[in-house]
Amino acid sequence: MKIQIETIGPCEKKISFEIPRDLVSQEIESTYRTLSRKVKVKGFRPGKAPRAILSRHYKTQVEEEVTAKLIADSFKKALEEYQLAPLAEPAVLDRVFEEGKDFIYTAKVEVKPEVTVEGYLDLEIEMPPVSLSEEEVETQLKVLQDSHAQLRPLEPLRPVQEKDFVILDFVGRLAGKPVEGWEANDHLVEAGSPTMVGDLARKLIGLSQNEEKDITVILPGNYHKKELAGKEINVHLKIKEIKEKILPPLDDEFAKDVGDYNTLADLKARLRQTLEEQKKDQARQAAKEKIFDTIIEKHPFPVPPSMVERQVQNLMARAEIRLARQGMKLDETNLDLPKLRDSFLPVAEKNVRGHLILEKIAGMEKLSVSEAEEEENFEKLAAQLNQRVEAVKNYYQKNDLLDDLRAKMLEEKTLDFLLSQAKITEKENAPAATPAGDHPEGK
């Protein structure tokens, strides 16, 4: 068998095959023998029908089966012999099959481009210095205080004020018919908050306990249900109870209640330490994202369309998951799906290019992920998800995600290596890092 490989583009190769006629004949005879044992031909016992009779009825079927097998076998041999790793199924461009002659065909395959990486060590990265103000610590303390607040029924009663919590029933109607998603009993909402559509939470201000009222709400133009976007609906409200938020005093007793602290000063010290660690982690991640951008800018090259398409599909799937968490479906929104898909293309191409560059650097620097590092990563994932380590492992194995996980870990390890080799200079008002969605973790 003759195999000839030709590079026809940065990410494409054409493979020409010429399979000898004797091999073709052997495959044809073998297929007819198998066929004769399976089919029933009138007047002949199983396996005894003459070849000419079988050919009269099954010639097209046999040729299709033989062609498919010859292509599969020869293509597999070419991949092994020339160490090719196609990114998608091959496209058979042409084929010439005729019994008694050599079988000739060509196939086009998409492959990873040859990537040459240079100048990735000692990258100069400017990042803002890590600093933490006392005001930030106080803000975090107030967040903690707010999370431990209690809701207490109003005494004496008064109309709803901003920041009050209201328990209410409501039902929305359009043209007299209930609107899906606009009916609830004993719904708790903070008056004046922007959490409810159509400024409904602000319209509670001034109402009294046990009061019922009909109000008008105009749904926004980007409302997740297309058929309701921009529509005016009538909402009937009933205020069932008004509660006020009571904040605990910020003192030593509060510190003891929220954790293993003796004084409020101990709690504030721990908050400061935690915030500093978070800021350092954020700065480190920002530096890695800047490195990611830099190596991409230094190495422009075409990327395989199939890898970009898979990346776009991943980004679309993530968008769908984010909407699902908000109770919405992608195809029910006012989003222009073709435009949304197109908007993901630059990010997808960037992520693919970055993946190929980091993969090349990892190979050049002989970086790899050890079993111990993989196990440690599973333990972190399990802690984040509040699940057993074995359950997380089983999920990745069951969904065939282990290779993707290892690839992401290797990319992070490679970025850590590049960061360790980079020249980081602190500079006030340094350019902001690339959004996380453009980072390889966004894949």
Task: Tell me about this structure.
The two termini are 41 Å apart. Strands 6, 7, 8, 9 and 10 form a five-stranded antiparallel β-sheet that branches. Strands 1-2-4-3 form a four-stranded antiparallel β-sheet. With 443 residues, the protein is an alpha+beta fold. It is extended and about 100 Å long. It is built from ten helices and eleven strands. α5 (264-298) crosses α7. The model is unreliable at 431-443 (pLDDT under 50).
Can you give keywords for this protein?
443 residues, alpha+beta, Alpha-Beta Plaits, Chitinase A, domain 3, Trigger factor, domain 2, five-stranded antiparallel β-sheet, four-stranded antiparallel β-sheet, extended, disordered C terminus
